[in-house]
Each structure stands twice: as structure tokens, then as C-alpha cells.
């Protein structure tokens, strides 16, 4: 089997001072693991198909269709893509747009997605008076208006919290209680509960639910069935999983992905 190249090696956005450049990647041609790296430019990662999970700072972000993870310039990050992932990267020169100063997930309109794909077909040395330059300016203005979504999982450098996070990431179906975990990491249940809130901003129960949501979005985007995802997360029934998903994101998994994959999602109409 041939060794696939890293997605980082195929394009260096920092070679240009242009306000925005874009690049499209099909992970069938590259290794799924993108090692820790950093850009001078900020980076927006868009999933056209499949999904990618990014780690930046002390948080994990999932990128399902119609969303993008924004990573400001200078922030080390890594990623892991599903085998069917097709992504578009938008790289933004620092100060070129009013974008968040910290990593976040942004909702992405179909118009922005199409503009990013169009910019990806342009050379990375377009001139300031070109069509590509005008497209980039409008794109950055529109992107700055996009709302944020809560598709992140806070993690921590604390060794005890990180040990629990690593174990549950490897086996998200593990239903051990906070008391069980406290015994394993040699802490009292009350002390561990306080530590979780201090390190992640969430209670243990809310943190584990957010982990399940991140895993579910990744697996559903990869093509897994709702039944398999629910079982893989340890839910006693599919309905219990769907209830959790709908409470978190406002729609069932089927409705969520039908909306995300629609060429004209809510708020966007055909001419």
C-alpha cells in the first residue's frame, strides 16, 4: 500500500501576503492524520463531504457539512479526517477580516461555501485589481457575519482530566460514573467534580454528553447509521440517542444532515 502524503505538505499559505487564499483537499489522496503545525495566516476548515476533527489549544472541534472551524494565525493545531473527507481550506491574512480571536466553529452559508470553492480555483498570486481579489473581499465580509456554533469539546492539560478524556475518547460507550472515575484517579468524587468544572467549564455529565455529540457528528458524517452510532456510544435505545442529539442541536440526526446537505438550507432560497 503506498504511503499517503500529509495534507500539510501540499500547500504553504504563508508564502503569500494576499488577504485570502483557498485550497481544496480530497483525503483519499492524503493521510487521515494531519500532525501538529502552525500558520501565520488564520485558517478556516470547511467540510464538503465527510468530517474532520481538529485539536487546537485545549479544545477538540468537529467539522460536519455546512460548518467550518476557524483557527486564528499562530495557533498550533492538528486534525484527523474521515476517509471520505473532502475539505476546503481558506487561509486569511492576519487583520484582513473581523474574525474571532480564538478558535471556534462557524455556521457556513451555501454562498460562502461556493465562494471559497471558487477562490480555490484561483492561483495564489492573484493581483489586487483582479476578480479573485474582489471575490476575496466579499467573502471575508460575509464570513465575518456568520454565527458561531457549539461543536467543540473542551479538554485539559491536567493529567487526571486528560487521562479520563483519553479513555472516554477511546471508548465513548464507557458508562462509568463520576464516582468510578474518582476511584481510578485517586481523588474524592467531590474534588473531581470541582476539577472538571475548573478545567473544562462543564460538569462531568455535560462534558461526556458533549463528547458523545462530537463523536456522533463525526461518525454520522462518515456514513454510519443512527443505530450503529447510538450503540457505539452506549445508549440503551436509538430513541434515547436521538433525544440527546435533538436537545443539543435542535433537530434529529436525519433532519440535521438533510439541512446541512441541502443546496439551499434554511434561510437560503433558490432564485
TrEMBL record:
InterPro entries: AraC-bd, Homeodomain-like_sf, HTH_AraC, RmlC-like_jellyroll, RmlC_Cupin_sf. It comes from the Bacteria. Residues 162-259 form the HTH araC/xylS-type domain. SMART domains: HTH_ARAC. It holds the Pfam family HTH_18. One of its GO terms (molecular function) is DNA-binding transcription factor activity. Keywords: DNA-binding, Repressor, Transcription, Transcription regulation. PROSITE patterns: HTH_ARAC_FAMILY_2. The keyword Glycoprotein does not apply. PANTHER family: HTH-TYPE TRANSCRIPTIONAL REGULATOR NIMR. This is Transcriptional regulator, AraC family protein.
Amino acid at each position: 500500500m503506498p504511503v499517503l502524503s500529509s495534507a500539510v505538505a501540499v500547500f504553504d499559505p504563508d508564502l503569500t501576503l494576499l488577504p485570502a487564499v483557498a485550497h481544496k483537499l480530497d483525503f483519499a489522496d492524503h493521510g487521515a492524520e494531519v500532525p501538529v503545525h502552525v500558520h501565520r495566516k488564520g485558517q478556516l476548515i470547511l467540510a464538503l463531504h465527510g468530517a474532520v476533527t481538529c485539536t487546537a489549544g485545549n479544545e477538540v472541534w468537529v467539522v460536519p457539512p455546512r460548518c467550518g472551524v476557524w483557527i486564528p494565525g499562530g495557533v498550533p493545531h492538528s486534525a484527523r479526517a474521515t476517509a471520505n473527507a473532502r475539505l476546503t481550506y481558506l487561509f486569511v491574512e492576519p487583520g484582513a477580516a473581523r474574525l474571532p480571536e480564538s478558535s471556534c466553529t462557524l455556521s457556513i452559508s451555501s454562498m460562502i461555501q461556493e465562494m471559497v470553492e471558487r477562490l480555490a480555483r484561483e492561483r495564489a498570486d492573484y493581483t489586487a485589481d483582479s476578480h479573485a481579489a474582489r471575490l476575496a473581499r466579499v467573502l471575508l465580509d460575509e464570513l465575518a457575519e456568520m454565527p458561531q456554533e457549539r461543536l467543540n469539546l473542551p479538554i485539559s492539560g491536567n493529567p487526571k482530566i486528560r487521562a479520563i478524556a483519553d479513555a472516554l475518547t477511546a471508548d465513548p460507550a464507557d458508562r462509568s460514573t463520576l464516582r468510578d472515575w474518582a476511584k481510578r484517579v485517586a481523588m474524592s468524587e467531590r474534588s473531581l467534580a470541582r476539577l472538571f468544572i475548573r478545567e473544562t467549564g462543564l460538569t462531568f455529565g455535560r462534558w461526556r454528553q458533549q463528547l458523545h455529540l462530537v463523536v456522533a457528528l463525526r461518525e454520522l458524517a462518515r456514513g454510519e447509521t443512527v443505530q450503529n452510532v447510538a450503540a457505539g456510544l452506549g445508549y440503551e435505545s436509538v430513541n434515547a440517542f436521538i433525544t440527546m442529539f435533538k436537545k443539543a442541536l435542535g433537530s434529529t440526526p436525519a433532519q440535521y444532515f438533510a439541512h446541512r446537505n441541502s443546496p439551499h438550507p434554511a434561510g437560503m432560497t433558490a432564485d
